[in-house]
Every structure is written in structure tokens, then in C-alpha cells.
Amino acid sequence: MKIKNNEKRYEVILAGSGGQGLVLSGIMLGEAAVLEGRVVVQTQSYGIASRGGLSLAEVIIDREEIVYQQVQTPDIILTLTEEALEKFAPYADKGIAIFYDTTLAKVRTGEYLTGYPFTQIASDLGNVGSVNILSLGAMITALPMVKTESLAQVIRKRFRGQAQEMNLAMLQAGADLIRKGERTWEPS
Amino acid sequence: MQGNQAMSEGAIYAGAKFFAGYPITPSSEIAEECSKVMLKIGGIYMQMEDEIASIAAVIGASLAGAKAFTATSGPGFSLMQENLGLAVMGEVPCVVIDVQRRGPSTGLSTKPAQGDVMQLRWGRHGDQAVIALCPATVAECFFMTVKAFNFAEKFRVPVIVAPDEIIGHMRENFSPPAPGEVEVVDRKTPSGPPREYLPFTADPDGVAPLASYGSDYVFHVSSSMHGPDGCSNNDPDNAAWRVAQLHRKIEMHRDEIVICKTFSTEDADILLIAYGATTRASRAAALELRKRGVGAGVLQLITLWPFADKEVAMLGARAKAVIVPEMNYGGQIAGEVQKVLGSGADIRRVNSYNGEIITPQDILQVMKM
């Protein structure tokens, strides 16, 4: 697994299908960065269906004013469907790290492509709906855009009871996926 | 905070106590937020059967003394035009938020556009004027909604806040100011004997005080031509005075109403004129042009109507070329810029109308850079 880390500014794309919770992932990633005193812009793009259809969330995390609100040069991309991976796979050739779900997309290989069966793992852990948090947990462990604890704080603020416990467990499971590997990221 | 949420919080900060609406993408979060907050602050949230009823309820609430508003998008905004005309003629303060999406008609309901610019100005028939503001950041969503209420109350006119879908749905760092930090204006109310109250005259500031329905002041509000007392009046002198008055009260406060921001325009050979989300792409393009040694600057129009003619004339005259990026087909603001700078001016349009966002690269392309 190879990821470039510029440490000053992060541009993130979370892509999948409507209903997978990727816009919420983007919001939570942004909120975690705000807790760390960063400047954040989060935008999204989706179709008219509440479930299905390509859905994107974009997050920019910076230390300075963010002038243009859209991601231009992503540092990391998450894709949770075959359609999303097809759209973004060419970015891997440009040296942009792509995390993708192998449950719903065909396996591809490449230096910058990292596949995990996120959907399957979330389902095995008891809630397929938390795939967004599981995959986010993996991403921020591979590329430390925000601290895991900041994201845990956001989860504790947003969810109560069983949902909170489940999502905190998913965050941890996502982080463990990466920590079990050897090297998580390479400084550019 | 999200842009839509910032607009509802701005409305509450400005003193809004009444929201009536019919939720529509991409403005629905405003209704959602109001449905939660209005009851907590002793206000009223009404989900209406359609947008015609929504604006009618807003007008009624405002005449009863409440600061009132609604939120919609293109299709709903079209339905509101007739009653907005009544609000213009009846000089009823109110705020309408139109989060612009790609049309025509129901179009691409989740995608951004800036196609309502002319409708904001000319949506109503019969020679009238309103005020329209267009934020480009979440902070501006908040502050321009407060401004919208202030203008509505001060000038007894409908004010429209018209961001595009990107700005409405975008989230940025923003914490609202503490109460009292930002000026909040309340309408003038009459103090003389109720029997002598004339709701449709004009003080030296161009506007008459407005009493509330249900108070001791009993008065008539009509969409038809009326005299100073609000009762029907067919005298041509009265009609001429009234039509001029509806325009004059905005024109005489033009410099207060027209809000612009400039970014590196002091020595700009290339002037980008933008509003809403395209402001941000324009600023990024101007920064890139500066890096390449080209003196580029941005004039951001926050007030779309009345049009910033003086500002465009001043900065446009100095520039060798003017670029106007807009998410519409015809260049609705570019046409206004052309009107101000003349047919000889080098005005380059950048238009997107496929529901996609204009990028800094799209803008640089017209500079062939």
C-alpha cells in the first residue's frame, strides 16, 4: 500500500452509491478536523434517488482559507461500488491512493490501489450500514488526516446507545485493518 | 455548519418568528431546521400545501407584525411570483430564499445552477423592483440572511436570498455571532392617532411606517392601485407616484443595498465578475493567473439586484478584459455587465448548464492559459 502524505492539506473523495452513508462520512471527517482546529470545506454531489446512483462526498482539510470549494488534486479516494471505482481507478495511475470495497467491486491491483471487503466486514460485525465508518476508520489510519480519537469524539456526539457502541467498534475495526499491515503511509 | 442551516440561523438571529414553506431540494434543510427551532423560540413553523400558500402565509404573518420567511427552489419560486408581486405592491416586508438548482422546470433537482438571476429581478409582471442577495460562503449565508431581513424591514420590500445548490449544501467552519454583535433592524411602526394613519405614504427615507394587523391601526392592503390610505385609487398622478415610489425607495438607498467584495482588483488587467459558488472558482483562477504574472482580480457581486453598475463601471473601465463565469446558458449577469461597459468591451463568458460546477480550469481556458 502506498500513500503520499503532504501533511498540510488533505483533499478527500468518498464515492459510492446513495444510501451508503458517504455524505455522512464526509461530514464526520470534516467535524473531526474542525475539532483539531483545521479549516474544512465539505461538499457533495448526488442524484435524485435516496438510495442508489453515484453519490460523492468531498472534503478539503487545510490550515488556511480554502478558496475553491471542490477537490482538485485528491490525496485519497474511497470507492464503495464498482461504478465509483471505475470512475476513479485512473487516479491510481497518477499516484493517488484509492481504497476500495472488494465486496461490491471487482478486484484490481496496483501500487496505489488498496482493496478490503469493507461491506462484508461491516456485515460480519453486525451492521452493514456502518460500512461508511469502518472504511473511514481505515482511511484515517492509513493517512492520518485526523486523529482516530477526534473521529471517536464526533461519533460519541452524533450517536447514542447501541448505535454509538456499534460505530465506535466499526471505527476501531477499520483502524485495525490497517494497523495489522506493516507500513501505513509514506511521506512524500 | 451547512449553508442552508446558516441561512435558517441567520433568519432566527434577525428575529424571524414565522416560517411557512413546502420543502424542496436543495432548500429542504432550511424547512427542516425551522421545524425544529421555531417552536423552541416561540415562533411558528407551518408546512403548507404548496408554494403559493407558503408565500401567502408569509405575507399574512408579516402584516400581523412577524418577521416571516420561506425557502424554496426554482419550481417553487415560480409559483410564488404572483403573491410576491402582491408583497411588492402592498409593501410587505418578507424574505424568500431561493436555493438555485438546474432547470428548466424540475430539471436536475440536486444539481447547482444560477439560472434564476433574471427571474429574481423580473419574475413578477408590471414594472416593479425587489432586492436579491447571493452568498458564496457559509458565513455569507448567515450574514446575508440577516441583511435580507434588515433590508426587507427597512424598505418594506421582498428580499430574495439566492445561493446555488453548492453553497446551500456546502459545509464550512462557522460559528454564529453572539446576539447584539450584528445589527438587526425592525420595521418602523406608526405612533400617531390610528384614524390618521396612512400606510402608503413616504417619509423622507422613502418608506411609511407599517402597523400590524390586529393592532389599533386598521388599514387596507390591496394588490390594486391604491392611495396613501390603501384604498382603491385610479388617479394617474397617484399611480405615477406609487410606481416611482416602489422603485425610488430602493434607488435612494442603492449604495447601502449594493454589497460587493473585491479581491486584488487594484491593478487588475483581467477582471473576473462572479457571484455565488463561481466566485470561489474565479478567485482560484485569479490566484493562478497572478502566479503566471497576469494581473487578475475578482469583483464578487453579493447584491445581484439592484445591479452593481457603478462598481462594474469603475473596475471594468480599468480592465483590458472582463470574464463572467456563470452556471447558466445565456450569461444573465454577463448581459448586465455588457450593458454597463458597452458593446466594445472585451467581455468573455464562461457558462456551464449541465449541472456541473465551473472549475478554475474552465475559467483559465478562456484566457487560453
CATH architecture of chain A: 3-Layer(aba) Sandwich
- Domain unit count of chain A: 1
At the fold tier of CATH, the topology name of the largest domain in chain B is Rossmann fold
Order of the strands making up the biggest sheet of chain B = 2-1-3-4-8-7-13
Secondary-structure element string of chain A? EEHEEEHEEHHHHE
Radius of gyration of chain B: 21 Å
Architecture per CATH nomenclature, i.e. the level-2 architecture of the largest domain in chain B: 3-Layer(aba) Sandwich
- The averaged pLDDT of chain A comes out at 92
What oligomeric state best describes the polypeptide chains here?
A: heterodimer
Q: Return the CATH topology of chain A.
A: Pyruvate-ferredoxin Oxidoreductase, domain 3
Spell out the CATH superfamily of chain A: Pyruvate-ferredoxin oxidoreductase, PFOR, domain III
Q: Report the count of strand segments of chain A.
A: 8
The chain pair forming the largest interface, with residue counts per chain, is: A-B, 19 and 20 residues
In helices, the fraction of residues of chain B equals 25-40%
Question: What's the CATH first level of chain A?
Answer: Alpha Beta
Structural class of chain A: alpha/beta
Task: Give the topology, please.
The complex is a heterodimer of chains A (188) and B (369).
Chain A: E1 4-5, E2 10-17, H1 22-35, E3 39-45, E4 54-62, E5 76-79, H2 82-93, E6 97-101, E7 113-116, H3 118-124, H4 131-142, H5 148-158, H6 161-179, E8 186-187
Parallel strand pairs in A: 1-8, 2-5, 5-6, 6-7
Antiparallel strand pairs in A: 2-4, 3-4
Helix pairs in contact in A: 1-5, 4-6, 5-6
Chain B: H1 3-13, E1 16-21, H2 28-40, E2 44-47, H3 51-63, E3 67-72, H4 74-89, E4 94-98, E5 101-102, E6 108-112, H5 117-122, E7 131-133, H6 138-155, E8 158-161, H7 165-169, E9 171-172, H8 236-251, H9 254-257, E10 260-263, E11 270-274, H10 277-291, E12 296-301, E13 303-305, H11 309-318, E14 321-326, H12 332-341, E15 347-351, H13 360-366
Parallel strand pairs in B: 1-2, 1-3, 3-4, 4-8, 7-8, 11-12, 11-14, 14-15
Antiparallel strand pairs in B: 5-6, 7-13, 10-12
